[in-house]
Amino acid sequence: MAEHTEHTTPTPTPATTPVNLAHKLSQFSELWSQKKIADVNDCEVKLAKLKGEFVWHTHPDTDELFLVVSGRLTLQLRSGDVVLEAGELFVVPRGVEHCPVADEETAILLLEPAGTLNTGDAGGPLTKAAEALG
């Protein structure tokens, strides 16, 4: 007779090393290229470096959190611009058309559901999937 073995789901081991944003940002130089640095539930935490103007787009099904790590970011909205300095964040609500603009190189942290495209519904040549950053 076979022994009954109870199946249990292993408890995830918590990370023991904090993520240093400055170190992660030093690992890449590409502009407008999102780098995934962590997962939170069904969301990805991503870093990006921006300079210039992106593309007008919306994310019909999700909000998008922008946190400026360094530099200055203008989020153009049809209702008026939102200017973010280092240490400030703004959540663009789902369905709100926006266009990020950075006059100087700016580093940002993004929080959005896994698989969210950077160009939202606009598509085009700037569309890139987030790359994991080791």
Layout of helices and strands, plus pairs?
Elements: H1 21-26, E1 35-40, E2 43-53, E3 64-70, E4 72-77, E5 82-85, E6 89-92, E7 98-113, E8 131-132
Walk me through what this model shows:
By secondary structure, this protein is mainly beta. It has one domain: Jelly Rolls, CATH 2.60.120.10. It is built from one helix and eight strands, in the order αββββββββ. Strands 1, 2, 3, 4, 5, 6, 7 and 8 form an eight-stranded mixed β-sheet that branches. A hairpin with a 2-residue loop joins strand 1 and strand 2. It is globular. The relative contact order is 0.27. The model has no long low-confidence stretch (mean pLDDT 90). Pfam families: Cupin_2 (PF07883). This is Cupin domain-containing protein. InterPro entries: Cupin_2, PKS_Associated_Protein, RmlC-like_jellyroll, RmlC_Cupin_sf. It comes from Streptomyces paludis.
Total strands: the figure is 8
Using the CA coordinates, give the radius of gyration.
Answer: 18 Å
Question: Spans of 5+ residues with little confidence (pLDDT < 50)?
Answer: none
Envelope shape? globular
Question: How far apart are the first and last residues' alpha carbons, in Å?
Answer: 48 Å
Identify the CATH homologous superfamily. Answer: Jelly Rolls
- Structural class determined from secondary elements: mainly beta
Number of helices: 1
Strand content: 35-45%
Largest sheet: 8 strands, mixed
- The CATH architecture designation is Sandwich
